[in-house]
Amino acid sequence: xxxxxxxxxxxxxxxxxxxxxxxxxxxxxxxxxxxxxxxxxxxxxxxxxxxxxxxxxxxxxxxxxxxxxxxxxxxxxxxxxxxxxxxxxxxxxxxxxxxxxxxxxxxxxxxxxxxxxxxxxxxxxxxxxxxxxxxxxxxxxxxxxxxxxxxxxxxxxxxxxxxxxxxxxxxxxxxxxxxxxxxxxxxxxxxxxxxxxxxxxxxxxxxxxxxxxxxxxxxxxxxxxxxxxxxxxxxxxxxxxxxxxxxxxxxxxxxxxxxxxxxxxxxxxxxxxxxxxxxxxxxxxxxxxxxxxxxxxxxxxxxxxxxxxxxxxxxxxxxxxxxxxxxxxxxxxxxxxxxxxxxxxxxxxxxxxxxxxxxxxxxxxxxxxxxxxxxxxxxxxxxxxxxxxxxxxxxxxxxxxxxxxxxxxxxxxxxxxxxxxxxxxxxxxxxxx
Length: 433
Hints:
There is one protein chain. By secondary structure, this protein is an alpha/beta fold. The protein has a domain at 71-106 and 220-403: 3-Layer(aba) Sandwich (Rossmann fold). It is built from 20 helices and 14 strands. It has a 6-stranded mixed sheet with strand order 4-5-13-10-11-12, sandwiched between helices. A 5-stranded parallel sheet has the order 9-6-7-8-14, sandwiched between helices. Helix 3 crosses helix 4 and helix 5 (107-121) packs parallel to helix 6 (138-147). The mean pLDDT is 94.
């Protein structure tokens, strides 16, 4: 398997190098030279396969010879050891529950796969791997649990002060061992910028073996395709074939993975990019002008991204046919008030509790279906609602079943280092702590 930088197609690396270096020095992102088209027989019979079987088939095709098949199968069976059910709420409306992993968020798919790939490639006696990750909420917890105790690795998580929920903060600051948390006085975009700058800093790269656990790392993106294929398989069993996906979108890795699945042959009819007030991409889809914005804080905090990194990959996938992207993707954005209304409506209509991100995806799906009736839609539930008790109305929150691991978190002590939004301060921490 060979990958190229989105800023330089002549810059080719193998999968191992792309995983460990995560971002090319030219500040592009890695993409596969070849995106395989899966067989029609496999696509038409997805309903016959389990999630691990689907994951293995997808992975072995896109990774080619990067990992021997027997090792890859073992790796996937360990990483993808939880379910992702598509729950029917009404005719043609399904919710894809992606919160059944250890951190209760969809990012467990990427974090667990990536940590195991890195552990597989690490050789005894090699230099310690320093994993840097910026989080707007859920990534940090998923990466922390994915890498906790992995030998010869150290993880440094940057998160914006006061802009993640209490449960999210506890998930990423209470682990100890090889996990460190930095509380940055800024936004997620600021945290992301600090991480990206570190990867292009010569002194840091000489001192450390740096890599990223954000969705800029191709090893995060590939496993997220698995649940699109698996969701399609579940709806096949229901007799549905024309399917659209509504995706809560922040850094656009989630929907980017869906588009990669589409490129591999999954016949998704439409992608609906659902955002909060950080509407950079919906605005682009309406105007044709891509203009990064300063992120604003909302109750759907994991989507508070004004300059989504993975848009580079999406633009690259459709660089030869940009009009195709506009046909394939629709964009919707909602205010906090509209998000609260959606959470209430979902509960009133289905007696089902959703987090604010999921509520935004549901509202976008329903809006799209009003103009396109009779087409089955899946909206992605990206996190368990128990992670957002402060933004869910009490009359709804009382119906949330809180998992035992979350209850156990409440007894832990936060361990985080506060830093200003300064690359010099971040660099000093990395060099001397």
